[in-house]
Amino acid sequence: MAAVNGKDLNSEAAVPPSSLIRRVSSRSIRNSISEEKENGDAPQKGSFVGKYKKAPEALKSFNLADAESELEVPGTPMTPRTSTTPGHENCTFHHDLELDHRPPTREALLPDMANSYRLLLTGLGEDPERAGLLKTPERAAKAMLFFTKGYDQSLEEVLNNAIFDEDTDEMVVVKDIEMFSMCEHHLVPFYGKVSIGYLPQGKILGLSKLARIVEIFSRRLQVQERLTKQIAIAVTQAVRPAGVAVVIEGVHMCMVMRGVQKINSKTVTSTMLGVFRDDPKTREEFLNLVHSK
Amino acid sequence: MKELNGVSTSQCVETNGALTFTKKKNDNGHENCTFHHDLELDHRPPTREALLPDMANSYRLLLTGLGEDPERAGLLKTPERAAKAMLFFTKGYDQSLEEVLNNAIFDEDTDEMVVVKDIEMFSMCEHHLVPFYGKVSIGYLPQGKILGLSKLARIVEIFSRRLQVQERLTKQIAIAVTQAVRPAGVAVVIEGVHMCMVMRGVQKINSKTVTSTMLGVFRDDPKTREEFLNLVHSK
């Protein structure tokens, strides 16, 4: 069996789940820009930065080291699979058949999570044995794993080399990408639309890859501000454009269903990098394109 | 409440298999409580708040199970917050029909249809523990007794703040209105969006689920039913 995360699974009978999961440490991120020897996953973090160590003109003020370290919150679980590990073809857990057919490293956690949910139901005063709730712990655990499947995906594999050379420098905007995420404070969903714009400098990105970038970072326990920033930094890493702009308009169920209970409220966050930050006209053009019907 | 249509209040509550807690009317409230949102109704001794530590532990186990680090800055108090939120989402278990109605039943010599439409509803899917939300429209034909209008919304609140299935929610609301005012007929229509279908699984974002319950003349007389649906769907 191929090694997963540098560990040979055959050697352990009962696998303690959390030890399988490599956590992002701030030290490993900073080191990844230079030589990286951790678990042989160096190419994953080093490839973009290695090729583009010199910051282009427009991104001079954009500190690469900061970008790398802020992309992932230290302590974020990362459970990427390698290309050599066998898949599970009839899996009902993974929805995206192209990308998600990989060994279920996190599915080993399902029984523990189901138990947590069973305890939760008992704590609520409900009867976990009644007909409607009989399999709810397992279903809820699977649902929660799906809502956090972004931890399993890495930027490089999602982009799948869909970066093309193109002699264009006009703004590219993909708007109203649906986003569903989980609030890390209340574990309640928040959803909304993401609009991404960038000014290419010789390289363009496959359009669906922008949506996939949104998926990686939104399917996690998130805060909308961090989500916006991570998406912007990921697009920057991918194609090194002259500037990136990301706007997210979200509805937070933690605010709608409980607490202040304001049903029509929306939260708008944005990240402007490069020329979008420096040049107000460019920013205005982007916002115009995003808000047009 | 007397036995009506062979259905009693306690039977309605036990359909969910939920426990009912006995309430005392005049216990000291907890005025600065952030848990209870509805100050009029919810100031009662925190019988279910005793469950908070256990639920917070379950959430902490859950976060560990996900592979997350419960000690990182953003997640430090998340188990407690999530447990409180979940208790809020299931606060319908604590409320009973009688206390919510608060005797807002009035004698009125009217027999024309009364419709309260587009009442927002937020509930939790009992199969995936993920929210579903939507609008509830209730109509009834009074027979001498009318109900305070906000009480219809409060009835929606009791039954939606539980682990629910949209079909059962519709039926419980209709039966509750029937018990309250004994009308000639009751109609309830719910149009809901299920996040378990939108965020995961089939991922159909624009889909809505419509369920309805027609009792009394709404079931027997198609013209009455048509009038109700007309009123509900008018802009």
Q: Your description of this structure?
A:
2 copies of one chain form a homodimer. With 293 residues, chain A is of the alpha+beta class. Helices cover 39% and strands 18% of the residues of chain A. Among the domains of chain A are: 104-148, Orthogonal Bundle (GTP Cyclohydrolase I, Chain A, domain 1), CATH 1.10.286; 160-289, GTP Cyclohydrolase I, domain 2. Chain A is built from 13 helices and 9 strands. In chain A, the strands form 3 sheets. In chain A, strands 7-4-5-8-9 form a 5-stranded mixed β-sheet, sandwiched between helices. In chain A, strands 1-2 form a two-stranded antiparallel sheet. In chain A, helix 6 (110-124) packs across helix 7 and helix 9 (207-218) packs antiparallel against helix 10. The first copy, chain A, starts with 16 loop residues before the first helix and ends with a helix. The interface between A and B is large, with 61 and 56 residues.
Q: What is the CATH class name of the domain at 160-289 in chain A? A: Alpha Beta
State the separation between the terminal residues of chain A, measured CA to CA.
Answer: 53 Å
CATH topological fold name of the domain at 160-289 in chain A: GTP Cyclohydrolase I, domain 2
CATH superfamily label of the domain at 160-289 in chain A? GTP cyclohydrolase I, C-terminal domain/NADPH-dependent 7-cyano-7-deazaguanine reductase, N-terminal domain
Strand content of chain A: 15-25%
What share of residues of chain A is helical? 25-40%
As an assembly, this protein is homodimer
- Largest interface chains and counts: A-B, 61 and 56 residues
Report the CATH architecture of the domain at 160-289 in chain A: 2-Layer Sandwich
Rounded Rg of chain A: 21 Å
